[in-house]
Design goal:
The chain is α+β, with helices and mostly antiparallel strands and 266 residues long. The protein has a seven-stranded mixed β-sheet with strand order 3-4-5-6-7-8-9, with helices on both faces. Strands 11-10-12-14-13 form a five-stranded mixed β-sheet, with helices on both faces. It starts with a helix and ends with a helix. Helices cover 36% and strands 26% of the residues. Strand 10, helix 4 and strand 11 form a beta-alpha-beta unit.
Length: 266
């Protein structure tokens, strides 16, 4: 499998999907929004965008399977799988807040090998192939060189389901507010990760995530020189539901504080 040959067509598919999203936002009808769960929104735009992406990816790699957010395609067991979030940041999209993206990753036996994130509003396409560095609109990107937490800007997200951790999470956020340049909640995990990769923020953390939220972005962070772990410092961050991504320099301080605060949480 020549991954380099897949990058350009994958980017083209992401941009085609982004163009559809952009067009639909102009005349978006709130009555066509559904609730998958409390504060978990989906629209016809999510579903139609996913169909566009799946059709395109099938053409460039027919033997690969899919993990998709809206489940418009059946999952089959194959060594290679596309992991797709057609519209990461649906709540932002619905409310007209201009931070949302298309996220496409390709995994081999669960290991992410290619990642593309297209931020629709700024027309920024972040991408990486394992071992090949990370890029934004063909320009190489690298994580921030900030060495201390007190010099850092931190991105985070708020989970739809608190899972018994919310009080400790709020305690962590309070610590970060008092010991960093501040916190940002952008509303798209894929964008958060790309902002770590491009040095705009020093770290991002969240829990209750799905693989399609983070798969592409994690590779982009790693290829930009950053570090990605789960909350415990291990490697189960794509499918494990929790993530810390950073520039590497502040990772241990952030992860150790998180473990200290979360100790004993269910």
């Amino acid at each position: 499998m020549n991954l380099e040959q897949l990058v350009k067509p994958t980017i083209e598919i992401a941009k085609k999907a982004g163009a559809f999203i952009r067009k639909e936002r102009q005349n978006f009808n709130l009555e066509r929004v559904e609730n998958k769960g409390f504060n978990d929104l989906v629209s016809y735009v999510d579903k139609e965008t996913e169909k566009i992406i799946v059709a395109g990816l099938r053409e460039i790699f027919p033997d690969a399977g899919f993990i998709t957010e809206e489940r418009t395609v059946d999952q089959i067991e194959t060594p290679w799988k596309w992991i797709v979030d057609p519209l990461d940041g649906t709540t932002n999209f619905v409310h007209g807040v201009p931070v949302y993206s298309v996220s496409i990753a390709l995994a081999q036996e669960g290991r992410i090998m290619l990642g593309v994130v297209y931020e629709v509003n700024l027309n920024e396409c972040f991408y990486a192939v394992r071992g090949g560095g990370a890029f934004c609109n063909e320009t190489p990107i690298h994580v921030s060189r900030a060495a201390l937490l007190k010099e850092s800007l931190i991105a985070t997200g708020f989970p739809y389901h608190e899972g018994g951790k919310i009080n400790r999470y709020l305690e962590l956020l309070k610590f970060l507010l008092l010991n960093s340049h501040g916190l940002r909640r952008l509303g798209s995990a894929a964008v958060d990760l790309c902002y770590v990769a491009s040095g705009r923020v020093e770290a991002y953390m969240e829990y209750n995530l799905q693989s399609y939220d983070v798969a592409a972005g994690t590779l982009i962070v790693e290829e930009a020189g950053g570090m990605v772990t789960d909350f415990g410092g291990g490697g189960n961050f794509v499918f494990g539901g929790e993530i810390i991504a950073s520039n590497g320099a502040i990772h241990n301080q952030l992860q150790e504080k998180l473990v200290e605060i979360f100790k004993g949480a269910s």
